[in-house]
Amino acid sequence: MLSIGFSPLVPAYALWALGAVVVLLSVLALLSRGPVAVLRAVALGLVLLALANPALVQEDREKVKDIVAVVMDRSTSQTLGDRPAMTDRVKAELERRFGSLADVEPRFIEADDGNGDDGTRLFTALSNGLADVPPDRLAGVIFVTDGVVHDIPSSVEGLGFKAPLHALITGRPDERDRQIKLLEAPRFGIVGKDQTIRAQIMERGGTGQALVTVRRDGQVLTRQQVPADTPFSLDVRIEHGGTNVVELEVEGLPDELTQANNRAVVPIEGIREKLRVLLVSGEPHAGERTWRNLLKSDANVDLVHFTILRPPEKQDGTPINELSLIAFPTRELFQQKIKEFDLIIFDRYANQSILPSSYFENIVRYVREGGAILVAAGPEFASYGSLAQTRLAPIIPGQPNGSIVEQPYKAHITETGDRHPVTRDLPGSEQSPPAWGEWLRIIGSQVQSGDTLMSGANDLPLLVLRREEKGRVALLLSDHAWLWARGYQDGGPHLDLLRRLAHWLMKEPALEEEALRASAQGRTIRIERQTMAETADPVTLTAPSGQESSIPLTESRPGLFTAQVESRELGLHTLRSGDLVAFVSIGPANPRELMDVFSNTEALGPIAEATGGSVRRVAMAGDQGITVPRILAVHSGTRLSGGDWIGIRPSDSALVRGVSVFPMALGFVGLVLLIGSTLAAWVIEGRRRS
């Protein structure tokens, strides 16, 4: 390729200034001297040309292939239905079509979900994939996508190239889907009270009615029919403190695009207004203050404490109007207001005919309906006045055998206790014998039901927990926990033990024996399965797309099995293990990718048409096959697409292998021309004077 190039010997502005002067002088010379001044103008022009330093430039060029970028949309919305298979088939067909184009190099670019909740960002992926390609070498761009794109430029100038853009849309126009949308979802709720959730069923190609199932912590609360596209409300009772997971699931449609958006989860943090505890102490003893101090130290506990100082059999003739002690309000506490308490503690309480049998029946009913009782036993438990001899006997997990062992011993955590959250990892239990002080008394008892978490002297049961229908019962068979509180023999973890025990009785979720929990850090999901069993079954993980996988667990500590898994999808993941369910969100709970799942040709239409490209579907309704248009090179004209073809615009890009430069104004030739023109002007003007 031959061309003329200039390498001025002076700055460009000086060259232009000299040019203006030459033109001006030439015009003046022509006006004053006539045609003879043409030679002077030629001489000045040659000087100016010499300063411009022209040269013949010969380039040795090699034609290079044009680049056609093919962006493959691999975002979450592209995993729905048969879109993945459709996308792979389109890619394979494009590879075959490009194989017949000798001067075209296809560059396939994979585009995943954007960071965070950015959605599908095909233009960003295109820009990154073509960072090393000059814009004039790009002959065309092809998107293989469902049309749900979230970074479309507002104008064609924002593209950074002039090549045609074509979009091949996966999915079908007759897609149908149903989803549930939360309108109002409370974050917090008072335990024991209802919270209202407002939602709406949205559908395309549906029936106008949908069956909604409501679950709380995996248990079905209700099923009801609701109209589609109309808001509805649900009242859900907050049962316990901590996270109450409320799940709303709408029945799917036949051949629905995806069921990943058929479920909405509302985690409601249960808050207790006050944990109301009734502490009933029998005869005063050294450990009574321990229970009181423990419960009063918790600002969230509303404690009602009574000590029986004057039992009915104590008759000393003192007139009633002279007694400073108040009567024990048995009827008010154990009949009228018993359901207002979250926990009742009997601390060394003996049956002294203060509570009639009907009140013990009320207590049993209270427990079975969801209440909790802790019996902290002393010597009275082995006597005739034992609570085990009352109508509480059916719910007390152990029966006294009449023995009272008074000897120093260190409490030990049993094998069952090693697995239970109440006693697992108690400070000091990691050593053998445990690094805590001794107790001096234990009440002999025969455990009939429940779990023995701690044992004492002669391997007698020390701490027994039991579930009674909806309620819970604990039996502590020693009144010497106060020795740890007083620092006897360096004391022990009395606060950890007694606080965990009280919170387990009041159904603290973190202390459940059977629990499934999940948390996320980045795209890593950490799974915890608490169980009293020796082994734990794999957990079923359901991704937002509906894909299920089985996750095996490894025992990290007794009773605690864990696993970690990486997730490729954004959105809400569901974990199930038997009746237990847990939820964890990777990124936002409702990602942009699943808010609009229908494929469309409208979003990319304006930007594609502005480049001369086109947008078309590769499959129509009811068509099981795909149609990929032919690819043609269009060298001239403005039409770059047709009924069964799409066009690319070839460029003249080439690699320069070598350059030869031949100066035209310097050297001997330039000098001869300059001298010749000057002599000619001198001779002609000399003749005119003579």
UniProtKB/TrEMBL annotation:
* Name listed for the protein in its UniProt record: Glutamine amidotransferase domain-containing protein
> Entry's InterPro entries?
Class_I_gatase-like
PANTHER family xref list: BLL2462 PROTEIN (PTHR37947:SF1)
Residues crossing the lipid bilayer are 12-31, 38-57, 661-684
Keywords on record: Membrane, Transmembrane, Transmembrane helix
Highest taxon of source: Bacteria
